[in-house]
Every structure is written in C-alpha cells, then in structure tokens.
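::Amino acid chain::
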Amino acid sequence: MVVLLNNIGMCFARLNEFERGKRCLEKALEIQLQRVGVHYNTALTLAHMAELSIKQRNFLEAYEKSLDAEKILKKITKQHDFRLRVLNSLVHYRIIIRQLNLTTAETTTGRFVKSAEDFVDYMLELGSSIQLSDEGHHDAMAAYEHGMILNLGKSREKFQEYKNEYLVFVLNNAWVRDLMVSKNDELALAAKHKSLYFYIRDTEFEDVDLETFISYMTHACPHCQEVNHVYSANMWQDEVRYLINQRQQNIVHRDRYFPPQNL
C-alpha cells in the first residue's frame, strides 16, 4: 500500500496535481509510521515529498524533507546508494537557500551548518565506501563535477583535486570507463557524463569556460535540470560569481590585517 501511494503521489506530481500528490505521500508516510515505524520506505516517501516541494518552489521544505530522509537512510541502510541521490539534491537545495537568504533559523538550529560543498564531500566519502549501481555511479560523478564548479572561482588547488579524483574514479571503474568510449550504451545514466568527462579531461583550469561546463553538467544532472525549471537557469553562474566575490573579499580582509612585509 505504501509503495502504491508513493507511486500514485509522484504520478500526480508529474501531472502538476500537487495537492493530490501531497495527500497520497502524507498518507503513505502515516501508514508507514503506524504499521512498521521508520524504514527505508519512510525515507523514500520523504525524498518524494522533497521532490514535490521543489516543484512547488517550497525550497526550504524540500531541504528539510531531504535532510530527514538522509538521517533515516544513514541510520538504517548506510550502504545504499540511494543516499547519494538524496545528498545530491541537498547540494542544490542548499545553494538555493543561501541565494534566497532563507536561513533565518540558522542561529537556532544546526540544520543549515553544512554548505553545498560539505554535501559534495559527504557524497564522495560515501561513494568510495559502497558498491555502486548505475544510478550510484551517476551521482558519484555528479559529486565530482559539482565539487569542481564550486571551486572554479574559489580554489584552483581544490578544483584540481576534484578533477584528479574524478579522472581516477573513471579509470578505476571498468564499466564507467567503457561507457565513456562506447556508442552503444547511451541508456546508462553514467553515459550522460560523457561530454563533460572529456571536456574536463582535456581542459586546464584557466581554460575552463563556465557556460560550457554548466551546459554539459546540466545535461548530466537531473537536479540541475529541475533547478533550471523551477528556480533559475543561472543558479550555478550566480554561485560561482558569489564565490569569486567572497574569495576577493577574504584576500582584501587578510591584506588589511596582515599586510605584506617589506624585506
């Protein structure tokens, strides 16, 4: 019954019948908690509720539901790569919340302590310790890509670190490596990263074109596509500019209090 309600709820969501979808998901959650208690399906329902919230532009609720889903998954099924999908959603929701300045509760709760890059690093830590499905490889590659773009305007060293690990990840996974050169496996999710993989592999940091990077990344990442649709097609451009500005301000602040010493 819970699985059926989950499926019906998401069908309504895709038809933009948000209130009917929400009622189905809330009923699924109620039944789950009453009959079984906290379980994998509880986290799945919460993740679906987050997807519905993002379609309704309720970004704070989407973030909260995804956090609750990850908390459950971490406790009851640490080795499941569905966690990567939830964490990937949190990367995007956290950026939106920062850009819209929605963190008024930040001083009273710890739920906004993690940055988008913190969630990226958590994805990579998790991805390196579990067996990955096609979807798991897909999300792991997205984590490296999102880590790179978050450092494009902030840290060349950190960008290079993500890039090197990304290339090693592909080379060390025979199935993914073969996908990058195959012309017959386009249905595999990881194959969506092919264009960005070759672009990153063959482009030095100083030659990376932001628009090209974002275009390839958005093609590969469904969360980026959803953000483009419901929030802004310029989210990543705006975030990179913000990070560049923060870096410049930090340099000015450092030089003001620790001026270079004349030798």
The radius of gyration is 20 Å.
